[in-house]
Description:
Layout: H1 7-16, H2 29-48, H3 50-54, H4 63-88, H5 94-102, H6 120-140, H7 146-174, H8 178-197, H9 209-214, H10 222-240, E1 250-252, E2 257-259, H11 265-275, H12 279-292, H13 294-315
Antiparallel strand pairs: 1-2
Helix pairs in contact: 2-4, 4-7, 6-7, 6-8, 6-10
The protein binds fe (ii) ion (FE2) (2 copies).
Residues 46, 76, 79, 155, 159 line the site of one fe (ii) ion (FE2).
Amino acid sequence: MSPQINFEEQFQAKVDAEIKIEPKDWMPDAYRKTLIRQISQHAHSEIVGMLPEGNWLTRAPSLKRKATLLAKIQDEAGHGLYLYSACETLGITRLQTIEDLLSGKAKYSSIFNYPSLSWADMGAIGWLVDGAAIMNQVALCRTSYGPYARAMVRICKEESFHQRQGYEIMMVLSKGSAAQKEMAQDALNRWWWPALMMFGPTDSESSNTEQSMKWKIKRHTNDELRQKFIDASIPQVNYLGLTVPDKDLKWNEERGHYDFGEIDWEEFWNVVKGNGICNKARLKARREAHEQGAWVREAAAAYAEKRASRVNEKVA
Ligand SMILES: [Fe+2]
Ligand SMILES: [Fe+2]
């Protein structure tokens, strides 16, 4: 028997015992790579996700709505920052992850490649998009990588505020004038299916699921989370007096879940591949923001250098 310690076995034993993996612990290369991909993708989604809602800040119907929406969008920037930091603990720089986004190499959630056409979209996005994100993220609070799990705890608290502010917009619209109710229904019609796509491909098509479940990065499969989201959302749809654009949706007594229609996977893959309505506009906006922010990064680096040299002088 070899006296050599089997790192891989020890690692898996820790994961199985629900002991968090920390940045300086040994981990398999593929675990590190999977996490870098997943966390950076998540960070990019938070940042790109600010764009569709930013589109409505100047047209919010009241000062109160504007202040709330602004706070929500700022939270998303904060989520991006926690996640970029968590990602850096895995040995990749923030600049590298951002360059991967800007070059089109890294992905972000496809939902943000859909346009926000009316004020009601601010309701539907908060309610459904942040709602779907919560389903995913609550499970991630127990993910095996410590920094990611801890970032998620705070993010989830803020997400639940986002979901409520969205649902409240939908409540006001759906109980308002006929035109307002129509706006709410139209937003639901456009966001329902893309929200269901946020959970990713079906389990049979999801190549990473099995390994990620073994490493406890993922706790539930895509299909489980999607079903959970549908079951939680339909009573909320009913309360609004609206309907989902799915003629196959019905309660299945035997399963204890809602049955639902087929997702348009062709549309899903098309948007993932970069051909959604807003893919190009979103990347263009991020590239411009990055270029325009160059002077801030330079100034911050120069300031840090100046401070460091002063400290060194004192020490000398
Ligand atoms: Fe967020
Ligand atoms: Fe959010």
